[in-house]
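ok, trying the design again with the full structure, not the truncated one.
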């Protein structure tokens, strides 16, 4: 019979299967780093695009209003504290992120705020956190404000959280911003850090001027109640920082301290006038405050490459290495490092 001469089929031997599996595993091992590198490149590019969009929003605002938006608009009737160490931080106030919404393709969100009032107080002079309708709007996430490399997601559940280690126990789960305005070297301080002198953000003795008129005093583009004009940027817009990244790597309550991760911000504004730690970054020639330094409210990113994306006052975005010279980094944060501000005070004197 013809069939009797056919050899029976046999399957793969165990050795052959193991060889095939080993080859596949080797190929996967070779491909994974390339895939991860491509994904990180895409995240970094998306982050840069976010900053570009926000930077253009700021520039469009400045073009329409003839000045940059305030870092934070003080709530109606609230007197800002003298410095960040003050325990009187007032209420939640709208920041630059809210004011640029109509100029960055989010007018629908902005119009919700403008249609809300707190009693007789209208936008932007009410406390958005304590105004239920406004707080609801602020809990929404806006994609342009969130870096895709942030491990903590679209809501800020780490800053000012309730007690406990679970990030979801955060008492302020509002829409996150991984991008903060630059106030320059006078933008923040760490009063508890030994040997570090306080850096006030509302000086009361500079130039002998009336303290009530010194709210806008700062080194950078943004500040509490700031009204920076393009003409104020004596250093040139292409050489002055405007927005920088801040990652959200501060994961648990135990990590809620300097050196163990950073806290993101809120796109809507600050909470209890803690604006130097929520919407502004300190720029100082000190490793504590430098890019990816240990200050939890400083500039930094989770991107590979040891650096961060940054937007300048002319709208361009570039990558800045964390190996940048400290003095250069500080200088980039100031608007008039070698000049005199519009109040006649020598830049760098405060």
């Amino acid at each position: 019979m013809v069939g009797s001469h056919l050899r029976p089929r046999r399957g793969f031997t165990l050795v052959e299967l193991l060889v095939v599996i080993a080859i596949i595993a080797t190929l996967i091992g070779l491909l994974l780093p390339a895939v991860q590198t491509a994904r990180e490149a895409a995240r970094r590019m998306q982050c840069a695009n976010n900053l570009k969009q926000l930077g253009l929003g700021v520039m469009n605002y400045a073009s329409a209003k003839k000045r940059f938006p305030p870092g934070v608009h003080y709530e109606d009737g609230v007197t800002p504290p003298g410095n960040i160490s003050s325990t009187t931080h007032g209420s939640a106030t709208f920041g630059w992120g809210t004011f640029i919404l109509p100029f960055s393709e989010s007018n629908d969100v902005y119009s919700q705020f403008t249609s809300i009032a707190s009693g007789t107080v209208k936008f932007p002079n009410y406390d958005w956190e304590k105004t239920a309708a406004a707080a609801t709007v602020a809990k929404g996430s806006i994609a342009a404000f969130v870096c895709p490399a942030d491990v903590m997601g679209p809501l800020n559940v780490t800053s000012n959280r309730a007690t406990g280690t679970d990030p979801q126990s955060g008492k302020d789960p509002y829409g996150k911003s991984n991008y903060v305005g630059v106030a320059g070297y006078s933008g923040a301080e760490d009063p508890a850090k030994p040997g570090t002198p306080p850096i006030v953000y509302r000086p009361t003795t500079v130039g002998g001027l009336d303290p009530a008129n010194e709210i806008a005093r700062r080194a950078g583009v943004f500040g509490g109640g700031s009204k920076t004009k393009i003409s104020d940027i004596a250093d040139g817009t292409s050489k002055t920082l405007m927005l920088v990244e801040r990652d959200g790597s501060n994961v648990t309550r135990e990590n809620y301290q300097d050196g163990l991760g950073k806290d993101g911000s809120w796109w809507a504004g600050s909470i209890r006038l803690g604006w130097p730690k929520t919407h502004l970054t300190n720029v100082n020639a000190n490793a504590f405050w430098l890019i990816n330094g240990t200050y939890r409210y400083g500039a930094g990113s989770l991107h590979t490459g040891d650096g961060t994306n940054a937007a300048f006052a002319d709208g361009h975005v570039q990558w800045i290495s964390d190996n940048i010279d400290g003095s250069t980094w500080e200088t980039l944060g100031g608007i008039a490092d070698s000049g005199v501000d519009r109040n006649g005070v020598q830049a760098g004197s405060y």
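Keeping the full-length input from now on. Residues 14-65 form the longest helix (52 residues).
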